[in-house]
Amino acid sequence: AQRLSGCDLLSDGSVRGSYRNGYDGRDFISFDLGSGRFVAADSAAEITRRRWEQEEAAEGLM
Q1: What is the CA radius of gyration of the chain?
Q2: Domains and CATH numbers, the chain
Q3: Between vectors from CA 59 to CA 3 and to CA 61, what angle results, nearest 5°?
Q4: Which GO terms describe its biological process (predicted)?
């Protein structure tokens, strides 16, 4: 499993954060800060997305 998180300073001075998880070199699930929701890359990740949203895992990312 791989996890990538970070933030970018944009040219207008605003900051954009990112969070992505991967497995075997492929995207698995990411977090969309704008909507406050997880985004599943495929049907297998959809199971994790539902569980994390039910557990309110996004609270720690915002």
Answers
A1: 12
A2: 2-61 (3.10.320.10)
A3: 35
A4: antigen processing and presentation of peptide antigen via MHC class I; immune response
pLDDT single digits (tens) 1-57? 899 999 889 999 998 888 999 999 999 999 988 888 999 999 999 999 999 999 887
Amino acid at 16: R
Going from the C-alpha of 58 to that of each of 6, 43, 54, the distances in angstroms are 15, 20, 10
Amino acid at 55: E
* Amino acid present at 22: G
Residue 13, phi then psi, degrees to nearest 5: 90, -5
Please check whether residue 39 is in contact with residue 30, taking contact to mean a CB–CB distance below 8 angstroms. Answer: yes
